[in-house]
Amino acid sequence: MGKKSTLLSRVIGAPYILWAVLFIIVPIGMVAYYAFTDATGAFTFDNMLEIGKYTDTFLLSIWLGLLATVISLVIAYPLAYIIANSGENRQKIMMMLIMLPMWMNFLLRTYSWMTILEDNGFLTTTLNSVLEGAYVILDEAVKILGGGLKKPFEPIHLINTRGAVVLGMVYNFLPYMILPIYTVILKMDRSLIEAAQDLGCNKVQVFKNITIPLSLPGVVSGFTMVFVPSVSTFYISQKLGGTGTTLIGDIIETQFQTANNFHLGASLSFVLMILIFICLAVMNKFSDDDGEVII
Amino acid sequence: MANNEIIKLKNISISFDEEKIIDNMNLYIRDKEFITFLGPSGCGKTTTLRIIAGFLQPDSGEVIFDGKVINDVPPHKRQLNTIFQRYALFPHLNVYENIAFGLRLQKTSEKEIKETVTEMLSLVNLKGFERRNISSLSGGQQQRVAIARALAVKPKILLLDEPLGALDLKLRKDMQVELKNIQKRLGITFIYVTHDQEEALSMSDTIVVMNGGKIQQIGTPLDIYNEPKNAFVADFIGESNIIEGVMRADFWVEMAGNKFKCLDKGFGVDEEVDVVVRPEDVDIVKAEDGMISGKVTSITFKGVHYEIIVEIKGFKWMIQSTDYQEVGSTIGLVIEPDAIHIMKKSEYSGLYGDYSSFSEEFDELSDATVYEDDEE
User: Fold this and answer.
1) Where are the domains of chain B?
2) pLDDT digit string (tens) for B72-89?
3) Where are the alpha helices (H) located in A36-118, listed in sequence order?
4) Do B103 and B81 contact (CB within 8 A), yes or no?
5) Cβ–Cβ contacts within 10 Å for residue B187, how many?
6) CATH number for the domain running over B2-226
7) A288 pLDDT higher than 80
């Protein structure tokens, strides 16, 4: 591995550089261009000023994205830990089961959640009849005590709620949280765990003092890989969130698809990109600090 | 003697995948001694260490610590600490926190932790390294931090699993002396695992030579070197010529077509035996003055001495001498009675001690495999 790039390495690297320029640098440049120009192509800040109207949407997107990421983390970490510590065959099967849904189309998966969660769907009707039964019993009980429930039973809705959107995010992006955490735990030096036991750690202390701090890099990359697509999604919120839950992704999509205002759409994208970047930078900073600070 | 025992292994056996790694092992270790498990890769020495540390459960047998059976005591509750082959320092903690790790678990006060860490760092000659990151240390420095970390919790026994394997020769020699000094100063038991016979000879009070999951011999370095029990031990510790011989009477052995006076007795008349002659114990004389004579087939300069291979009646002897001998010349050998050691025949007879296939490359190759296997 010489430090000087040889002709060969430059020739081999050329397609990738070309790819990066064409499909990463140029599009970002175009987004920036549209964001700061108006329909005539003149430089303007109007698009940026207009974004103020969407502050709530931005906040909601980040809030739901954050919620989905944290829930994913809570589910993924123990799962990844258990998988990484099980036998080789079981590991293969479990990883297969986690990867399998990813082979199916993302839209299809979200669509099927629509059917599961809809008001006449199996899940909602079952849940409602159970709840109604509980309500009736409770009502009777209160009547015996000489009172009565004030409100009649109201069936719950699953579809077209924020909860459904978060569920969709968690469901779709969970594997991206599991994989990096699993990998980092799997590659952890076993002798570090033995050394910790040797010095007096019981299982819980090993987990707290060794496993968690050493798996932080996996958590950070899992966090990134779930948070970014969750914040910018539009399909999940459209299908599972109904009209009540409009995310920034939906607004951007509208600008490009129906409103035909590329300039506003681009400036929204641009700001979203910067916000995500800031979130991740903060996240990285935290994990770095945790690496230094002990217990 | 008995109340001096700190560790006792009783009928320990363990198998992995049907293969017996340790076969009915019995051993006691005295308090404050430096004991070394010595043997080639796969001999079960590291496994034995891991059983004592508690990382492995024996299939059968008892591990006794200070008179109590500790088979079911988990590693974190055993009063012994391990130095791992690759040091296993915590990469997310600095030197200070690595050494303080065990103390923090014991809820030691911050002041006491600071005192102990400072004391440990000076013990291993790393004063002023408190704030350094583990990744910024050299192999030798990491090794010292590992020692400091294990000793900080004041164990009764320190287990060392090939701790110097990854260091270069010079550093290894220095660390050998230093480890021995630390052991003497602290007065605690060291159980040391190595495949390096020189290391074992120079550091240990007691050496346990192992092969094939069995103890071959237990003794002081001098015993093991001078009075090897069988051909395996004789070959593994130092260089040896192992010649087939017959005991004609007490103090008389016949080998290489000649009768030699020796110091060994108690064998049956005409009993077949293995005779060990160390290469440095043979004197070279003129062909006609020798008890036996042969032709020099090769000579290698080794620094302190020459290594001379001499063929006598089809058997190749190795002789170490400071005098140069011409290849092809015929020389005579004189072997004094105290240079001869007689061993009973064993399963290892005839497998070792002939230098006919001897070559430098071969030696290095087999050393390299020893190393790789041990890494697992």
Assistant:
1) 2-226, 240-375
2) 999 999 999 999 988 999
3) 46-50, 55-84, 88-99, 106-117
4) no
5) 8
6) 3.40.50.300
7) no
Burial class (CB in 10 A: 0-12, 13-18, 19+), A75: middle
Task: State the CB neighbour count (10 A cutoff) for residue B367.
Answer: 12
pLDDT tens column, B281-290 = 999 999 888 8
Between the two ends of chain A, the Cα-to-Cα distance in Å is 40
CA–centroid distance for B39 within its chain? 6
Q: What pLDDT shows up at residue B364?
A: 44
Counting every residue, how long is chain B? 376
B97–A294 C-beta distance less than 8 A: yes
Contact by Cβ (8 Å): A159, A118: yes
Answer yes or no: do A200 and B106 touch at CB < 8 A: yes
CA–centroid distance for B146 within its chain: 21
- For residue A207, the enclosing domain spans 53-119+157-292
Q: Using DSSP, state whether B331 is helix, strand or coil.
A: strand
Residues of A within 8 A of B117 (CB-CB) are none
ipTM reported for the complex, 2 dp: 0.79
- The encoded tokens of residue B20 equal 């017996």
Q: Does domain B240-375 have CATH number 3.10.350.10?
A: no
What pLDDT, on the 0 to 100 scale, is given for residue A102? 86
- Which residues in A lie closer than 8 A to residue B92 (C-beta atoms)? 213-214, 291-292, 294
Q: Is A1 exposed, middle or buried (0-12, 13-18, 19+ CB in 10 A)?
A: exposed
Q: Which of B92, B103, B156, B157 to mutate to test the interface with A (most CBs of A within 10 A)?
A: B92
Determine the pLDDT at residue A94. Answer: 94
Burial of B54-79, coded b for 16+ CB within 10 Å and e otherwise, reads bbbebeebebbbeeeebeeeebbebe
